[in-house]
Model the fold of this input.
Amino acid sequence: MNIVDRFLKYVSFCTTSDENTGMTPSTPGQMEFAKYLADELKNIGMKEVSLDSNGYIMATLPATEEGHPVIGFIAHMDTSPDASGKHVKASIVKAEERDYIDPRYAGQDVIVTDTTTLLGADDKAGIAEIVTAMEYLIQHPEIKHGKVRIGFTPDEEIGCGADHFDVKAFGAEFAYTMDGGAIGELEFENFNAAACKIRVHGLNVHPGTAYHKMVNSMRIAYQLAVMLPRWETPEHTQDYEGFYHLIGMNGTVEETTLSYIIRDHDRARFESRKRELEHLVRKVNREFGEGTVEIEMRDQYYNMREKIEPVMYIVDIAKSAMEAAGVTPVVKPIRGGTDGARLSFEGLPCPNIFAGGENFHSRYEYLPIPSMEKAMEVILQIVQSIVTL
Done:
């Protein structure tokens, strides 16, 4: 199966993750897809294929030449809950046929949806690239390489992709996540990230007799939300600038819930942002009474840069591989996170390489086919370069 057909098959699986189920994987479609992938890996000749009860897949490409570092490639199976991933209708068009596709892809074949769902290139493109590269190496045993491990994870989009990833069992010295965006992207630093849930408690009384009795939780929640800096939001920040992002609001007079994510590349500013939100909650409670507002906050991942810098040669390997594949490396910080961020802190240094898609988490997501093919070439170049270390 070629890489395009493989990707189109993958997006037929609905693998939207859901942070509210409390399960791993968080949705049944992910396990369905995982079972398909495990069978596919066995069929193409991968060894030591495993699928655990949490939906994590690992497999081995045995070495053709011993004595080299074991390396890994990782991608995630779930898609973002920001847009529907059900009944994806994908098609191939020329780039200029869609006005939302960057003009730099003019003349290229691009995979798009009918704009009622996301596409799923984040990160099924990464999976397709890894599987296709492994199949190529199996079919070309004359290519010298060391042992390669691959891993596919669930629930990355809800910050849980590394929760049950067994780094020791994976057994790689270092790895790469194929989870970046446009062609050429190479990333080894990312946001520090936290998730926050704020619950506001009110009191409902008939509006005709509500004077000095009613406590409208929605109005209090709104008051708290507008106390945060107006310009420190995703739509007003770029590069290394952090933000507060209100991702969900659900309320009645009796109770309102606000869901936030907090992001910053700088660890000190990240901690300051968390303290500021806690300060605002205390301030609102002083006005409306202790216990009116409750806050729960949990760290999701940290900036992998501090773990990658001591082993920067693995970034240099990826740069050289891109250049060998005819791709200009674009080193930039991730305004988000990957499984690799957490795995780097668990002993598996894990920079991030482009998967080729654009407009992730959107109904206007698209995937230039040449970008996907180049990502696969980069994997092949990395694998071959290890024998020269």
About this structure: The first helix runs from residue 3 to 10. Residues 207 and 214 are 8 Å apart (CA to CA). The chain has a mean pLDDT of 96.
